[in-house]
Amino acid sequence: xxxxxxxxxxxxxxxxxxxxxxxxxxxxxxxxxxxxxxxxxxxxxxxxxxxxxxxxxxxxxxxxxxxxxxxxxxxxxxxxxxxxxxxxxxxxxxxxxxxxxxxxxxxxxxxxxxxxxxxxxxxxxxxxxxxxxxxxxxxxxxxxxxxxxxxxxxxxxxxxxxxxxxxxxxxxxxxxxxxxxxxxxxxxxxxxxxxxxxxxxxxxxxxxxxxxxxxxxxxxxxxxxxxxxxxxxxxxxxxxxxxxxxxxxxxxxxxxxxxxxxxxxxxxxxxxxxxxxxxxxxxxxxxxxxxxxxxxxxxxxxxxxxxxxxxxxxxxxxxxxxxxxxxxx
Amino acid sequence: xxxxxxxxxxxxxxxxxxxxxxxxxxxxxxxxxxxxxxxxxxxxxxxxxxxxxxxxxxxxxxxxxxxxxxxxxxxxxxxxxxxxxxxxxxxxxxxxxxxxxxxxxxxxxxxxxxxxxxxxxxxxxxxxxxxxxxx
Lengths: 329, 135
Known about the structure:
The complex is a heterodimer. Chain A is mainly beta. Chain A has helices spanning about 1-20, 195-200, 255-260, 270-275, and strands at about 35-40, 55-60, 70-75, 85, 90-95, 100-105, 110, 115-120, 125-135, 140-150, 155-165, 170-180, 185, 190-195, 205-210, 220-225, 245-250, 285-290, 290-295, 305-315, 320-325. Chain A has a 5-stranded antiparallel β-sheet, with no helix packed on it. In chain A, strands 12-21-20-19-17 form a 5-stranded antiparallel β-sheet. In chain A, strand 7 and strand 8 form a beta hairpin. Helix content of chain B is about 15%, strand content about 30%. The chains are: A mainly beta, B alpha+beta. The interface between A and B is medium-sized, with 20 and 16 residues.
């Protein structure tokens, strides 16, 4: 008797499942809103450093029956540097994968903290790129943006983005170093000096770059604090007054995107410098290679920096370094 | 039909009771399985620098009878921040545990690590001697 009931129940469930499984889904083409609309995304990743761009893509559209777009503008809460601009081209990707720009209006105009593009082509849908060049004045602050589009029928739409924290870091890229020549590195000035200039800036020299090919040991490219044991400064005669003891911590494969400009999505941010533990670290780093780096803390405790080795050339006894610096006090 | 169902259910319940009451597998204070293995030795040793790259100039010399490990490191190695890595025989464990960078700068006093066998009955203390590559 029970088995019979089980059978009926199972049959009924199977039938229901078949009915549900075969039901057609209703689909209707979405109705576009009959008004001017906009949308925005931020395209850049990582910390926002002064001197770099923050890039946005701002899209706006309205039905052709309601008119055309006449202008687009961006208002930044902190005025960007003079190279801030809003694209006046709409891009499409051709069959070869290249982005081809179609001008839709005049080049953008910066007036104070407002950047505007006035449309000259009959346009009812477009995406424009906005490049905000971060000014030094924004360091340590937050910046917000208001994107606005206007149409010929008087409609206006706006889109707010942010706030975005602007980093306290400074950055210097591609500083050439050469053994016996431009080999005195100043974190305070974010510069590399030769012996003559190092003498004039003796109190600011934090590291010495040198290359040594010493038999039986691996020394090669090195960044050594001027105050380190002379065993790590073989053949180096320091200019008078160059004697700071800098903390140096060797790292490998920390290829910061801003410094290395390689495919790795790694970013050193303010918080990395703040949380860095430099206690007990030595005052030298030897046997450095391309794509290696060193964390540095200056003798006065004022700065922490990350120095990345972009290039190390054994033959020429030289290299190229890039630096991110954070001011502690 | 119903009688057969009842018999199967009863059988299942009995199996469950038997499994539930079986004695637990022994584990040690670290939650690790205590096994029957009495082997107790280090099979490989690695030493990493602050950049997590090896600082060895060649393979470490491991003497499983004298219980010593000798390792030569590159000239200029920061001996205060070294990360030792031991490879042990199956089921063995190390005391003290490696929790991060370790100071090996006192070259006159080699650090010691004890290997404990899988059955937790054999203990062998290894002495790690670090030598810096001479210039």
